[in-house]
Amino acid sequence: MKVYARCNDEGLIKRIFSEVFEAPEAADRLLKEGEGDEYVHVQGQYQLYDKWGRHNYIWDEETGGMRELTEDEKPPKPEPQPSEVEVLRQQVELMRKQIEILTGGAE
Asked: Cα–Cα distance between 97 and 17 in angstroms, integer?
């Protein structure tokens, strides 16, 4: 059984699959081959994306194989987003200021 990697235009691995479940396309790259469950149920063996949605693997043309990206090779981590509670606090504060303007500061 054969296991393939599918890359995007930059060579980043976007899919790993077994020929048991999907026929490879011309651009797919042979990752490994052998017998047993390891070569059938491959999706759970690789975490293709980190918790920020960045690719973890790239196809290395020099070695002809897949390798893990270093943190320096990945794009910067996205800025942390405010929590739902913080968003609600900001909205309440904005509404409070708008009410104050509309009422002239009278309570």
From this structure: 55
Average pLDDT over the chain, rounded to whole? 92
36 neighbors 29 (Cβ within 8 angstroms): no
Q: What phi and psi, each to the nearest 5 degrees, are found at residue 45?
A: -85, -15
In the chain, the amino acid numbered 60 is D
Model confidence, pTM: 0.70
Does residue 5 surpass a pLDDT of 70?
yes
Residue 1, pLDDT > 80, answer yes
**CB distance 56 to 70 below 8 Å:** no
Residue 13, Cβ density class (10 Å: 0-12 exposed, 13-18 middle, ≥19 buried): buried
Q: Residue 7: what are its φ and ψ, rounded to 5°?
A: -110, 160
